[in-house]
Amino acid sequence: MTMPAVDFFYEFASTYSYPAAMRIGAVAEAAGVSLRWRPFLLGPIFTEAGWTTSPFNLILAKGRNMWRDLERTTEAMGLPFRRPDPFPQNSLLAARIATALPDDGKRAAFSKQVYRAEFGEGLSIADAEVLGAILKRLGVEPAPLIVAAGSEANKQALRATTDEAKAKGLYGAPSIVTADGELFWGNDRIEQAVEWAKTHA
Asked: pTM, whole model, 2 decimals?
């Protein structure tokens, strides 16, 4: 019998993708659901909607509540939290590096450490040295991986994932898509998404 699977679409500049990335693996594993880590870019989707920045910046009340909610969420999970400045961060290099890494545990480990650096320590994820240090801690030599991340083939792979996300109807992150095409948006929908995947496989 084929193991049920979900696609976890995440954007490194996304606030709620931070707690989602830190817990979705354990939730999926406990349910016997396979997890595919799918980094993508929200920028092109926001641009098509006519937005020049995050909706959390465009709607001030929404942004204020989001930051307080994220503080509560990370505190409850025992995660460090520090608001990055500027927000949103430029996530292009991080997304390219994640795309270049194999989805065999390395992509997930890198992604979680990027989120911790950004939202736990307030570091700039646009800084190649910050990302290089994360790769070193994971036992990956930074220089060749960063070169591979900048290759035309890898750029096209990230664009393809972003195009796929748009085609599936994604409008934010984190988003989980099941094999039958159900879309679940938000850190608070992880359990529902995984249960759907398990019962509709």
From this structure: 0.96
